[in-house]
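Hi all, long-time lurker, first post. I run a small reading group and we've been trying to get comfortable going from sequence to structure in the token notation. Rather than ask abstract questions, I figured I'd post a concrete chain and ask someone more experienced to write out its structure so we can walk through it together at our next meeting. Sequence below, copied exactly:
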Amino acid sequence: MQIASLSLARSVWMILSHRRLLQRGIEILRASLSEFFLPQFQSLLKPGIRPIAIMDHPLDSQLPFSGDRVRGYLGYIPFWLKTLLYLYVRFGPPALGEIERMMRDLRRLYIASGDVYRRCQSTTSSRPAAPANPYFLLLLLFDPHLHCIPSLHVLTVCYNYFATRRAVERLGGSSCVGKAAAAEAGAAEAQTYRFALRIAETTLLVKQHSVYDIGPTLYLLTRLFPGYDAAEVRRFVADLFTGYPYSVPQTNDRLRDSILRHYQQMVNWEKQTGFEKPTDVMVDFLKAQRRRSLAIGRQTV
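-- Answer (accepted) --
Happy to help. Here is the structure in token form:
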């Protein structure tokens, strides 16, 4: 079963048809409005309301702008919804508990991200002028480009493959689905993993994020969900830009090395500061980066 080919309308109907899922869906919508959209437009309408760090990386300029990928960039939430539908189609009503868990966790990702955004936002200077494309128009209208760290795109798709793996292990171990169905469930995990890789790459290729953004985002994911550990980070980063045709292998190696270095930088920052909350670590890190940029005259916001 191909997750991407499942019906988005059917995914939404599944949520509307179950009271608890509908409640979780409303909670996610509220969180997205209050934690992602509201802080951005507050800063857009009232400049200076909160500090903003500019996070650029030298490797950003070595990646081409691939505007044709923007539709995929915007498709991360539809794919997440289709993953929920896959679990229900494959495992039936027993999957509802896992689906609800994944919805609660997505809200948790929004709230944790908002805890960073409301105290220190982040942007890049490499966002290009939007081409004549309706999808880029959506980005310009609804995303002022102030929430680069953490990346909700990367948080969502990496959590999605991780949670899908856990869900199929639990559901497959408690239901008589047979070897063929178990193999299909394993294929679903592979599909969600490949999608996470492509989305993480696309965030850079459509110039909505910097190379600098992925490592800190993965750090936050490991702290929110300890099962997503350092080994999982290394596995994921090692598979990024493998076989990527638009840059030389040495550049791809440098991309992966940089992302892992930024992840470790956050781990070390936590040890240095002694903060227990990962969002406090990220805010302190962003503010330090902002002070450094101001000191060398590279930041004006």
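A couple of things your group might point at:
The chain has one domain: 3-295.
Strands lie at 52-54, 121-123.
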